[in-house]
Structures are given as structure tokens and as C-alpha cells.
Design a protein that fits this description.
The chain is an alpha+beta fold and 422 residues long. It is 33% helix and 24% strand. The two termini are 26 Å apart.
């Protein structure tokens, strides 16, 4: 029997970090948006609104109770916005588990390819056009190099970042590149021996491919710009060609699980992790960042603090909100069509693949994610060690005088709706 609902003990499963980004928005956003430092785009409004209501009663609450002692637990719904720091962790875990079974059983390398900052103003003016060129140019550089040198078609997974450690506009793409692939003529799986690459050759290829596509946009009048003539535009191109086009390669990793976890947790993450927020005080927020230009005695970047007023912080952060429907993760080479890869070439065997497909058709395993995150199962009563029972879900109606209560007959598919006056 459940304990009497008249006076249950209620615990909340929000797993709060020390500071929440939503709290800082709650404190200052309404005032900031009246006179913003930079124009606020619709997708930025949407992202902020989602972060502010994520895991609050506004999105709904599931209630669970212990059948032994009556302890009631509230589980708040998440917003699932791509920019939300609280939802990105779960998205990363799901993506990593999915991808590791779709990768070839050969070494992979983490590659970072960066555009010169002189291109930033053109990137911002062209709503994703140049970001798409970056994706293609980076992937084509390695596809061509492996084809010409080894007659191999590689697999590439690319993740876009527009931010640096201090949240400045810093455009680069992280790539998981198979160190080998499917041989073009024999169709056999082949690894590349060694890790040496000619960096200058790769940089020149990357630079050339990006430049050609950028000039093509200009010639087709598809590029938003302030150049008075093509001659002035080409002079600009020549100047950025003299700047550093950075390519960084990590040593090959043999196990795809290691690779995907590494790059997944590093790259498929929110712009600002709440774990890095060190202080929220009045009108200012502080967060930690790595100073990659200065190293400690162990040759690791020195960790510093950056403190900003909300009028500086909000536009700095929000410039990285993804464009609507813009794909931040893209796949190239043999990974662009995973069904074309022979099953025996994949890291997981066929039985594991079938198990994964079965898992994908099932609802998200929220409990396992919480256990990995916190070390505890939130639906096991701490006092009785008994599994809690689902009671109902409450959602606040747009009519603020009412709340909607859903009682779930089937835990996966259906709910019964029972409007109640709050």
C-alpha cells in the first residue's frame, strides 16, 4: 500500500550543479532583451526560453512513489534544445552509443581544421553557407589525400564548433577520420600504417578547396558581402591565404569506442558546460577556461577565470546558437552511407548491431543515463531500496488556472488525460 498522499515526503531529481545557466537568464534576460547589446534572433529567443524552462514544472513533471514508505520523487521533463547545457550530455551519450557500432574496425584519428578569423564577418553574414563549405572542404581534403596516396575511401564524422575557450567566435570542425578504409579496387578493409602526414600538403589542399568554393559563391552572386568589385574580393582572398590555416591531428586510436567517447564528450557538447560556471553574483557571471597559450609544469593549459557582466555575456554566448535546421554533425566517405559497408568490417558484429537496432526502437533508457551521471538510480528508493511506482504526470496548462494530469496505462505508448483545476 502507498502511504497517504496527504503528507508525502517529496524529493526533487534535478541533480543541480553548483550554478545553473537558467538562473542567470532568469535574473537578467527580461531586462536585457528590452535593450540588447546585439540584435536577438528568433532562434536565440527560442534557445533562451527553452533553457529557462528545462526541467521545471513548465514542461511537465512525472511523479513516482515508493510502495513501502511513500517517498515521492519528481522527475522533470527536459527541453531537448540543441543549445541547452543540461540536455547536451544525454544527447552525447545516445549519439556515442549509436555511432560506435557503425564504425569500421580500424584505427581512427581526431582531426581539427580551423578557418582564419579574417573570415568571421563573411561567415556571420551568410547564414551557414560558409560553414557548409568548411564541412565539405575539410572532408574532401582527407578523401582526396587517401584516394591519391592509398586508393582508400575513408569514413569521416564531422562536428562543427563556432566557439573557442573564452566563447569568442572561433570556427573549426572536429573530425573522426578512419585511419584507412575500403580499398577502391579490391573493396577490402585496409588500415594505414604509421601516423605521418605532410601537414603543408593537407593545409594547401584545404585552403585551395575552400577558396575555390568561396569564389564560386561570389561569381554566382550568392555571397553576401561589401566588396566593391571582384578585384577587391580576390585581394581579400590573397590576404587570408597568407594567414594560418590550422590542421591538428591526434595520434590514431585503435578502438572505435575510445574514439567516439573521446570526441563525443569533447565535441558534441554545449557551448558552455554548467560545470565550468564558477560564480554568479549580481550582474556578473564567471566561468573557467583553458589558456592554451600558457602551459603549466606538466605542459597542460593553465585554467583561468573570465568574469563578465550580463550585457557582455549574453551576446557572447548567444552568437553560438545553431541556425535553424542546420546540421552540426555530418558524415562523409563510407560513413555517408553506412549500409554500403560490409557487416564484417564494422567494429560490432552482426548480433550486436541487431541488439542496437532493437534498443533504438525502444524508449530512451533515462535511468541508465542518470546512473552514469550520478552513480545512483533515481527510481530506487534510497531508504527501502525498492523500485518506485509511476503515479502520474502533471503539466501546467496555458490557462494558468489549470494543470493537466496524465495517468499512464501503458508506460511506453499511451496516457489518459484528466484535466484538474490546480
Amino acid at each position: 500500500m502507498l502511504a497517504s498522499p496527504s503528507c508525502p515526503k517529496v524529493s526533487s531529481l534535478n541533480y543541480e550543479k553548483k550554478f545553473r545557466l537558467a538562473d542567470f537568464f532568469d535574473m537578467h534576460w527580461d531586462e536585457y532583451k528590452q535593450s540588447p547589446s546585439e540584435p536577438i534572433k528568433p532562434e536565440q529567443y527560442k534557445a533562451v526560453n527553452a533553457i529557462r524552462v528545462c526541467r521545471t514544472e513548465a514542461l511537465g513533471v512525472d511523479y513516482y512513489a515508493c510502495p513501502e514508505c511513500g517517498e515521492v520523487t519528481k522527475v522533470y521533463h527536459s527541453c531537448k534544445n540543441r543549445f541547452c547545457p543540461r540536455c547536451s550530455w544525454q544527447d552525447t551519450l545516445n549519439w556515442a552509443d549509436l555511432m560506435k557500432s557503425r564504425m569500421m574496425a580500424i584505427p581512427h584519428r581526431h582531426v581539427v581544421m580551423t578557418l582564419p578569423h579574417q573570415l568571421n564577418h563573411l561567415i556571420k553574414e551568410n547564414n551557414g553557407l560558409l560553414l557548409s563549405i568548411l564541412f565539405r572542404s575539410a572532408a574532401d581534403t582527407f578523401k582526396l589525400w587517401m584516394k591519391e596516396k592509398y586508393n582508400i575511401k575513408p569514413g569521416i564524422i564531422s562536428v562543427l564548433h563556432t566557439f573557442g575557450e573564452m566563447k569568442q567566435f572561433h570556427v573549426h570542425v572536429h573530425m573522426i577520420v578512419s585511419w584507412g578504409g575500403v580499398h577502391i579496387h579490391t573493396n577490402e578493409l585496409q588500415s594505414i600504417k604509421g601516423e605521418f602526414v605532410n601537414y603543408d600538403e593537407l593545409k594547401d589542399s584545404f585552403k585551395r578547396k575552400f577558396k575555390e568554393q568561396l569564389i564560386d559563391l561570389f561569381d554566382k552572386n550568392s555571397l553576401s558581402h561589401n566588396f566593391s568589385s571582384k578585384a577587391e574580393f580576390l585581394q581579400f582572398i590573397d590576404r587570408i591565404n597568407q594567414k594560418k590555416w590550422i590542421i591538428h591531428l591526434e595520434p590514431p586510436m585503435n578502438i572505435p569506442t575510445q574514439v567516439i567517447r573521446y570526441i563525443g564528450r569533447y565535441s558534441k557538447r554545449a557551448c558552455l558546460s554548467e560545470y565550468k560556471i564558477t560564480s554568479i553574483k549580481g550582474e556578473t557571471i564567471s566561468f573557467s577556461y583553458k589558456d592554451n597559450k600558457n602551459k603549466d609544469i606538466y605542459n597542460k593549459p593553465i585554467v583561468r577565470q573570465l568574469e563578465l557582466n550580463y550585457r557582455e555575456f549574453f551576446p557572447l554566448l548567444l552568437q553560438h546558437v545553431p541556425l535553424p535546421y542546420f546540421r552540426l554533425v555530418r558524415y562523409y566517405g563510407v560513413y555517408s552511407n553506412r549500409t554500403s559497408i560490409p557487416k564484417e568490417y564494422l567494429f560490432d558484429n552482426q548480433q550486436q548491431e541487431e541488439q542496437l537496432q532493437q534498443q533504438e526502437s525502444e524508449p530512451e533508457n533515462w535511468e541508465d543515463l542518470q546512473v552514469e551521471k550520478t552513480g545512483e538510480n533515481p527510481l530506487i528508493c534510497k531508504q527501502c531500496q525498492t523500485r518506485m511506482i509511476y503515479l502520474h504526470t502533471k503539466i501546467i496548462s496555458r490557462d494558468k488556472l489549470k494543470s493537466l494530469t496524465f495517468k499512464r496505462f501503458n508506460m511506453i505508448n499511451s496516457k489518459a488525460r484528466n484535466p484538474q483545476v490546480a
